[in-house]
Design brief:
CATH topology of the largest domain in chain B: FAD/NAD(P)-binding domain
CATH architecture of the largest domain in chain B: 3-Layer(bba) Sandwich
Largest interface: A-C, 59 and 55 residues
Helix content of chain B: 25-40%
Shape of chain B: globular
Distance between the termini of chain C: 29 Å
Radius of gyration of chain C: 18 Å
Chains: A mainly alpha (186), B alpha/beta (667), C alpha/beta (281)
Order of helices and strands of chain C: EHHEHHEHHEHHEHHEHEHHEH
CATH class of the largest domain in chain C: Alpha Beta
Distance between the termini of chain B: 19 Å
Largest sheet of chain B: 5 strands, parallel
Strand order of the largest sheet of chain C: 2-1-3-4
Number of domains of chain B: 5
Strand content of chain C: 5-15%
Number of helices of chain B: 18
Oligomer: heterotrimer
Number of helices of chain C: 14
Number of strands of chain C: 8
Strand order of the largest sheet of chain B: 10-7-6-18-29
CATH topology of the largest domain in chain C: Rossmann fold
CATH superfamily of the largest domain in chain B: FAD/NAD(P)-binding domain
Strand content of chain B: 15-25%
Shape of chain C: globular
CATH architecture of the largest domain in chain C: 3-Layer(aba) Sandwich
Chain lengths: 186, 667, 281
Amino acid sequence: MAHSEHHTENNSLASNIEKSVEVKAQKCYQCGKCSAGCPVADEMDFPPSMVMRLLQTETPENDEKILRSHSIWLCVTCEMCLSRCPMEIDIPSMMDFLRQKSRSEKKVNKKAKNIIAFHKSFLNSIRFTGRLYELGLILDYKRQSLNMTQDISLAPKMISRGKLHFIPTIIKGTAQIGRIFKKTSN
Amino acid sequence: MARIGVFVCHCGENISATVDCGKVAETIGKLKHVAYSTDYKYMCSDPGQTIIKDAIKEHNLTGVVVSACSPRMHEPTFRKACAEGGLNPFLCEMANLREHCSWVHEKNDLTTEKAIDIVRSQVEKVKLNSALQPIKVPVTRTALVIGGGIAGIQSALDIANCGHKVVMVERSPSIGGHMSQLSETFPTLDCSQCILTPRMVEVAQHPNITLYTYAEIESVEGFIGNFKVKIRKKAKSLDEKICTGCGLCTTKCPQKKIPNEFEQGMGMRPAIYIPFPQAVPNRPVIDREHCTYYIKGKCKVCEIVCPTKAIRFDQPDEILELEIGAIVVSTGFDIKHADFFPEYGYGKYKDIIDGLQFERLASASGPTTGAILRPSDGQVPKNIVFIACAGSRDPAKGIAYCSKICCMYTAKHAMLYKHKVHEGKAHVFYMDIRSGGKNYDEFVRRAIEEDHVNYIRGRVSTIYERDGKLIVKGVDTLLGAQPVEIVADMVVLATAGIASSGAEELAQKLHVSYDSHKFFAEAHPKLKPVETNTAGIFLAGACQNPKDIPDTVSQASGAAVKVAALFSQSELTREPLVAAVNRSGPPMYSTCVGCFLCQSVCPYQAIEREDFKTRDGKIIKTVAKINEGLCQGCGTCVALCRSKSIDLQGYSNNQVYAEVVALLNEY
Amino acid sequence: MKFGIYPGCSLTGSARDYNESVFALAEAFGLEFTQVPDWNCCGATAAHNLNKELSLALPARILALAEKNGLEEIIVPCAACYSRLVVTRHELKKDPELKNRISEVIEMDYRGTSKILNVIEWIDKYITPKLDEKLVKPFNYKVACYYGCLLVRPNKVLGYDRAEDPQTMDIVMRKIGAETIDYPSKTECCGAGLSISRTDIVSKLSGKIIEDAEHRGADAIIVACPMCHSNLDMRRPDINKYWKTDFKIPVLFVTQAIGLAIGLSPEKVGLKRHFVEVKIS
């Protein structure tokens, strides 16, 4: 009780995570099992256990490193870390939180540009039609990422196999979907 | 006229930091019937006690309230001080200002107000206290030791060497416990069996020790000094007095495919078997669950070959009833099998074994006579991985606590491996190295520095098989979580130590408390580590929590001393806080109407019937009577008595009413 | 027997083959689907990466539509959609306040009463009991059942099979005559939603899975997720380029394998739409 004032003042990333997604960074005892099982750890600037350690320091410098990291965007939410974590720390939920925080604070790592461009194109696609329009997604992604030549050979093969449509399906509730996007875009 | 003395303790700053002790003493001092009131920094100290003693004499006190901590620790202290001051010790009460007030509230006026209220209620209670006399009960000077591992062996020998009788009960066919399975012991690497087996023999031959193996506790009744214990001696299916232990039956038994418990399943045994060559007693038993005769009704090969005709197929279990004065619980531990860890592949891959299995591999008496060979093909593993905390410190899948012994035995395993396979490589994945203990850290350093064991800080994520090798995937957290992949021939999991199977049932039979992990609970974590909450029952060894051999032996000797101290007196003194049925002169004799509802609810069988008779023997009235030796003062009978004829001495209804009324009324 | 189906976007586009095999199976077993009317995209990885509330609202709308139309049970063949729907139901059950907020966002009552079945659960419940009598062409191949992530994790939320070494798909495949291999990549990640934005990572991870299955002698990889399928099949040229290999092992949906075993033609179950030629039939 004597320390309650200290807690309310704490605005570290770790305490924000605890408040928002109920993940307690201090539970991590650095066993490294998450990093050992993470399929993309070797691509990351900070493997999951290192992200946990940075959080535990609760210093502005290290919080900044996390929000500006490439790691949070490479995480594919495969949930392997959570499924093997001896302390059941929900790293995937925490990563979702960190990505949103990184974007809202405009601290997105430059290397994650394409990944975010893809996610944005994806959401744009469903925002207006209600369902994913794959051709539209690819074209919009190319526009956003400026990767004009990527997968250029894939399209004809997909078309010949009937896997790419030229006309999007538009659901009846598009107006409603539009409102869902609006109401959740805080 | 009551003259109460009140003594307010500061408990250093434990109470005075939030309670104004001076104000409490001053306010209480103004109450009616309070003859003396004061405060002091440490009431339990010698000068503190002197204040109480002097005040009793000086102010001619009829009751004392010490306002300090919980009565758990210091009630005996203050009651003794009162007795020395000339007051009956049961006229002293404690008001708990620490746990009930100062520790749980902030410093302010309300806290002090609450403290005053607590003291007031005790002042009202103590006015109604009556002088009580302690109860004397006789002591049966025979100890029961449950479990024949190193803890039980040590306790039994220590008690027996003090000249007291000991009964040892072991549920398996031989004493020796897990220690008999170990290869060499840390930190000295002396051979486990070499130091243990002489002790086992000593138990068997000691004139003061009666040994029952293949036996279990059926029930325990009674109380300290006077337990009544029933023991089930399971049928060994042979006459032990005739059997010479020649072992011919064990070699001729046609059933040979039963996984050998002593070898941790790494070898087979017959249905009639002696668990291991050094077993005590060195007599076989028939495992009826696997014996062909008991399953199919045919075979009897053992009976035919037995040169002394000792086999008894129809032998029944035997129930023994014993009078016991004190009990030492030394039931040891089990290891948690690693099959709850599917990512580590235990049970799926033959060359992933647990720590106890490695002990058998490394033991000269084991299935490979001490050679480190992989179970799958009998080859010498060139690359071996040891994984610490394979279950311990893992709330998700294993157990939350640290099993304490694994860091040391893992270092030992790696060392033993290196001593036997010089060209081999040993790797240890660890999270922390917990090597507190005499010469322990030096031992681990030796494994690293001299035997070149490769310690990697990190937990393994998964193990899988590929082309006959085990791929161990982990990280080195000291290199920024750099991936580590080891192609191993064999993996040893340092699995967690857990409570022995059946510990919970035994605890319930004994009426002793146990924790959420089913380990037996000590009475106080620091100051009563070998006592349980039930008087006369003591703990030794890993049944309390995982322990290494030195700690186990020390605790076992500690428990033995407690028993010996108990047996040093011919009778015991018990607190007289028991129930009493009121008595009056004829023709009523008592307000008790003899309904005996109390008898049916008493958990301790402490209520008896008493007849009042005329001179010619005719029964006038039958009323309830409390056996003070058995009554534990739980109060169930008091609550149930419809004619309000029973009261708890020291906690009578009137005393409790007085406390409550004091709290309700303004002063 | 009529029950709901939520096909999800993939099945109407790049995973048409999967869709065809699911519907072909249903037809063969006399089962009829009702599509969740006017269904929308579940939001997939993009939504929960960028906007948590949106990632709950989109699946909630689907579930609310199913409830409104009296669909007590909906089959969700796409493992990714399945995961999003189950996670949403779990989150909204845990937090009534959030549930109210999401109901408000989607302008519909959400109660969480519809049962969500993944494709294996659906097969277990409706196909397996009648499988023996329909089996005409046992699937006599050695197969590596690949579960990926989203069918089994997070295990505490999904409560389906076990997270390590799952068995449900293996059991189904053995029922139709296949031999299933034990291999560690069963639940390793294929790279999932990074397919377009980080094709290199997908090539690396999917390549490891394919190598593991081939190395242990599998004739085919069996999947139950369109995302896994597109990474292992459509991305095969990228994979072979990345690892400098020539992996040819085909990747079949579990529904396609069952379809073949009960005598459906390769065309009928969409095998001709694969990128990696399926010589199995």
